[in-house]
Amino acid sequence: MWTPCIAQFFQNFRPTLPVGHLLPEPTLYGVRPSRPSLKLDGEIAIDLRDSFAAKIANAFNVDLLHDDARRFIGRRDISGIQPDIVVIHESKRAVSLIENKPYDGSRLTYAQGEGANEYIEFTNWMNSRNIPCDYFILAPQSWMTAKYYDRLFKIQEALLARFGLLRYEDVFAAMEKSSFTYPGINQRWGDYCDTTL
Description:
The chain is an alpha+beta fold and about 200 residues long. The protein has eight helices and eleven strands. The protein has one domain (about 1-190). A hairpin with a 2-residue loop joins β6 and β7 (about 75). The mean pLDDT is about 85.
C-alpha cells in the first residue's frame, strides 16, 4: 500500500526532499553534504519487475541487456534487481533507484545490501555506462539509525555520494504541506513529520 501512495505523491506533486546520510557515530544522521536534496521529477514508475533495466536502456539509448562484461557479478545477474520506485529524471539527466522500507519490521534483502550487494553493483554498472545513478533507501529515521545502521553505513561507504537516505518524516511533511490525499490511509500526515535532524 505505501509504495503506490508514495509514488503517486511523487508523480502528482514533484517534491524536493532532503537527502540524508549516516554519520560515523552510531545512531547519528545528517544531511548529505554532496547533493543534499533530491527533486522527484521526470518519469516515476513502480512495479516494473524485470523490465526496469530495459526502460532505463530505452531512455538513455544504450544496450544494457547484452552487456555481459559488467552485468554479471560472479554468476548473478545484477540487472534482475527489483527497485520499488524507479525515477528517470527530466532531460534524462539521472536515474534514482528507491527502496521503500515503511515499517519497523521491514528488512533489507540479500540483494539490497544484506549480503550480495546487487544494488551497489547495479548502481556502479549504470555509472560506468555514463548513466548517472543513485541508490536511495526510503524509511523512518529510527529504522535507519537503530536497526540497520551498520549495514546502511557499509552501503554508504561503498557508493559514497551515489547513496542517500530519504526519511518518511520528510515525505510526510511534504504531503502535509501539499494537502495530499490517498484513499485508505489516515491523511493526518503532520502527526508523523518531525523534521528535526
